[in-house]
Automatic annotation (TrEMBL), chain A:
Residues 78-292 form the ABC transmembrane type-1 domain. Pfam families: BPD_transp_1 (PF00528). PROSITE patterns: ABC_TM1 (PS50928). This is ABC transporter permease subunit. It is a multi-pass membrane protein. It is found in: Cell membrane. The lineage of its organism: Bacteria, Bacillati, Bacillota, Bacilli, Bacillales. The chain crosses the membrane at residues 16-36, 82-103, 124-144, 164-190, 211-235, 276-296.
From TrEMBL, chain B:
Gene3D superfamilies: MetI-like. The lineage of its organism: Bacteria, Bacillati, Bacillota, Bacilli, Bacillales. The chain crosses the membrane at residues 12-33, 83-102, 114-134, 146-166, 187-209, 264-283. The keyword S-adenosyl-L-methionine does not apply. Belongs to the binding-protein-dependent transport system permease family. InterPro entries: MetI-like (IPR000515), MetI-like_sf (IPR035906). Keywords: Cell membrane, Membrane, Transmembrane, Transmembrane helix, Transport. Its main location: membrane. This is Carbohydrate ABC transporter permease. Residues 79-280 form the ABC transmembrane type-1 domain. It is a multi-pass membrane protein.
Length: 307, 298
């Protein structure tokens, strides 16, 4: 019996040999650049010593986590992360959907193309560049302040003011992402069977009725998948954006987990502390995505789940 | 969709929609326009770079600050380093992603789900910044271009997209080649890859733009200023406000002292985004195609 299985396996091995060989570089890559760093998180439980390396450094158990969870600054960072990403989600998530719905109502394909092309553009520009551009726009002499002054207000240093910083983060991140985020909804809308709309028109449904009773329900599967995906990023408040736009004056409202990890780890060289914070973040993200996905499954919406 | 006669109400809605979309276009383009105006303004101390307000057009067009920026060496070394990492990064990514995706496209490959799972799990969990940083250092990649192109070489998401594209290629094509005696490697190179040009081009564009805009890895892995990428040169000037280089440059050209630091910043921003602005309208549709392919579940 074993002989037969072995023979069959050997035959299979021969048949698929080339394919397995093709997988080797990719698997080595994932092992080295993804799984070794995953093992590297043991640093969070060790007292890292530069000369001894990760392996030889002594274990300290949960010490780093204990000091982290008793540090008020960590809670402030966690709070900022959640608030910023929550605002981005609440205000940023519906806008691409709304934009796609409204734009799909426009009949002129040429105009539609132009609007789409322009709206995707900011996605292709780095946050370094945008930080530079927004520094100008929100500066004391910038256009926003001249509008404020035209209405009798006083000029404000928006980007150095903790009252406005988060609002600006949310607005600029919506600016940068709404067009690109809408692509997937355009795709879903264009896949809706046009007979549905025709039937609705014959039944006398107006534009808004068609939107509410056909377009939006047909978009729900995509919306739910996008929502699950963004839930897993609740602790990703947007490193690129914040790191380039923040300054010491607004740390109290703008410092997030990722910027904190960067400063703790690569600036202060507290490798173990930074790894502990990073591990905390990755674990929360992993748990969130599993939980949200199982909720969606439990609700009987198997098609809307990720796996 | 069938044509329906539009009611007056519909016409009003249409008008509002067109107006709204026009406003969205203008608002989206305005931030870019400010940089164009500031960088081109030649009216000296009265220029947009100094004066307050909602400046819509330069009072006087001058390319002075552009010719000044041309003499800024770090800009050119940044350009060169960015081009090198982009070309190298794209070649490596496309080659290795497609080589990895092809076996996974074969549903009957033994342990296919295991291999796919190993790759997909990296989308859910990762080691994070510090372990990765230490690994790159220990591998001796610090201060080399490899630190910029190798760690993100095979993205799990791109593997999925290419795999799904390979799966959509009719099996009969491969089977007939196999009857003619071709092995998997030959089929892959001579049949599958040529047929997959659209998806490979899309991935190449994605990866390419990613490399063009990347700065963080260059910041943490490259310490030699001559090896920094363009975005880091920008960052140094705009965000770290490290304008010593520029001040020196401006002093050397004392006859051009009319240019403010901010005008040079805008000019250098223009330098970095002009290539993107020029090619973007032509390549944009391929990006969209890629997102659509990626949206297919599986």
């Amino acid at each position: 019996m074993n002989e037969i299985v072995f023979k069959r396996d050997r035959k299979k091995w021969k048949q698929y040999r080339v394919l397995f060989i093709m997988l080797i570089p990719g698997m080595i890559y994932y092992l080295i650049f993804h799984y070794i760093p995953m093992y590297g998180v043991v640093l969070a439980f060790k007292d890292y010593r530069l000369l001894e390396g990760i392996m030889a450094s002594p274990w300290v158990g949960f010490q780093h986590f204990e000091s982290l969870f008793s540090d008020p600054y960590f809670y402030s960072v966690l709070k900022n992360t959640i608030i910023i990403s929550f605002y981005k989600l609440i205000f940023g998530f519906p806008i691409p959907i709304l934009f796609a719905l409204l734009l799909s109502e426009i009949m002129s394909t040429k105009f539609k193309k132009v609007v789409q092309t322009v709206s995707y553009l900011p996605h292709f520009i780095s946050w370094v560049v945008f930080a530079g551009i927004f520094f100008t726009i929100f500066s004391l002499e910038g256009p926003i302040n001249s509008i404020v002054q035209a209405f009798g207000g006083d000029a404000v240093l928006f980007l150095a003011d903790d009252r406005y910083f988060r609002t600006i983060l949310v607005i600029t991140s919506i600016y940068q992402g709404f067009g690109w985020g809408s692509i997937i909804y355009f795709a879903a809308i264009s896949n809706i069977d046009s007979q549905l709309y025709e039937a609705a028109i014959i039944d006398g449904a107006g534009r808004f009725k068609r939107m509410f009773y056909i377009s939006i329900p047909m978009l729900l599967p995509v919306i739910s998948i996008m929502l699950i995906l963004s839930m897993s990023g609740v602790l990703d408040a947007g490193f690129d954006q914040i790191f380039n736009m923040y300054n010491t004056q607004v740390y109290s409202v703008a410092d997030i987990i990722d910027t904190y990890v960067y400063r703790q780890g690569l600036v202060e060289m507290n490798y173990s502390t930074a790894t502990a914070v990073g591990l905390f973040k990755s674990l929360v993200a992993l748990i969130l995505i599993i939980v949200v996905n199982s909720i969606v499954k439990l609700m009987g919406q198997k098609d809307h789940a990720l796996w | 969709m069938i044509n329906v006669k539009k009611s007056p109400g519909d016409k009003i809605i249409d008008a509002v929609l067109y107006l709204l979309m026009t406003v969205i276009i203008l608002v989206t383009l305005y931030p870019f326009w400010t940089q164009v105006v500031i960088s081109l303004d030649g009216s000296g101390a009265k220029s947009a770079a100094y004066s307050s307000g909602l400046v819509l057009f330069p009072k006087e067009i001058s390319f002075g600050s552009y010719s000044l920026a041309f003499q800024y060496d770090a800009l050119w070394s940044g350009y060169w380093n960015t081009i090198v990492r982009t070309v190298l990064g794209v070649i490596l990514a496309v080659t290795f992603t497609s080589i990895t995706a092809y076996p996974l496209a074969k549903k009957d490959l033994p342990y296919n789900r295991v291999f796919t799972g190993i790759i997909l799990f990296t989308m859910l969990f990762g080691g994070g910044l510090i372990p990765t940083y230490l690994l790159i250092k220990e591998l001796g990649m610090y201060n080399t271009v490899w630190a910029l192109v190798v760690p993100g070489m095979i993205s799990a998401f791109n593997v999925l997209i290419i795999r799904n594209f390979f799966r959509a290629i009719p099996e009969e094509l491969e089977e007939s080649a196999r009857v003619d005696g071709a092995g998997y490697s030959r089929i892959f190179i001579q049949i599958v890859l040529p047929l997959s040009k659209p998806v490979l081009a899309t991935i190449a564009l994605w990866v390419g733009v990613g490399h063009w805009n990347a700065w963080f890895d260059s910041m943490i892995y490259i310490s030699d200023p001559d090896n920094q990428v363009l975005q880091m040169v920008l960052r140094k000037i705009i965000i770290e406000n490290n304008t010593t280089d520029l001040t020196v440059l401006m002093q050397n050209l004392s006859n051009q002292s009319d240019f403010s630091g901010r005008q040079l910043q805008s000019t250098i921003i223009m330098f970095s985004i002009i290539p993107m602005l020029l090619i973007y309208p032509f390549i944009q549709k391929y990006f969209v195609k890629g997102v659509m392919i990626g949206a297919v579940k599986g």
